[in-house]
Specification:
Helix content: 40-55%
Largest sheet: none
Number of strands: 0
Radius of gyration: 38 Å
Oligomer: single chain
Number of helices: 1
């Protein structure tokens, strides 16, 4: 009942007849990039300067936030007295 039914004369699969008409694309080497030492130094110095500016802004923001909390707590104590 559940057995598969096979054909009486099985036909073989067709033979592969594909023949490539185009040659493989020619691989060219990538152009070499000459990196100037001044450019590398400029990028590194710029990165250091930007990082230090970001750190300065972060430290300043934290200091202002702490000062605001201290002042708020001082003013709150004066209004309670």
């Amino acid at each position: 009942m559940f057995l598969p039914k096979y054909p009486d004369n099985p036909t073989p699969p067709p033979a592969h007849t594909h023949t490539p008409t185009d040659q493989a694309p020619v691989r060219r080497p990538l152009p070499s990039i000459s990196i100037d030492k001044k450019a590398v130094v400029t990028v590194l110095v710029g990165g250091v300067v930007l990082t230090s500016l970001l750190a300065t802004v972060a430290v300043t923001a934290i200091s202002v936030a702490i000062a605001a909390l201290v002042l708020r707590s001082l003013f709150r104590e004066q209004t309670r007295r």
